[in-house]
Amino acid sequence: MDALTLFGAVAVSLMLLFYALEHRAPVFVLAFAGACAASSIYGFAQGAWPFGVVEAVWSVVALRRWWGRRVGVG
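User: That's the sequence. What structure does it adopt?
Assistant: Structure tokens below.
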């Protein structure tokens, strides 16, 4: 397994973990957003730009959800 594949596997694994923990605290929503951003970087780095774009969008969506939970909106 090369470094890029390992990076992608860790990023996607962290996405799953933080998604499962989101209900516990807003910080896990923020961590999910960061893991989505890492997955986006992986997608672009390995040449799968549609995956990179979708993960970037998920990262923005998660950041908005975090912001809403942080200020008590969601």
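The CA atoms of residues 22 and 29 lie 5 Å apart.
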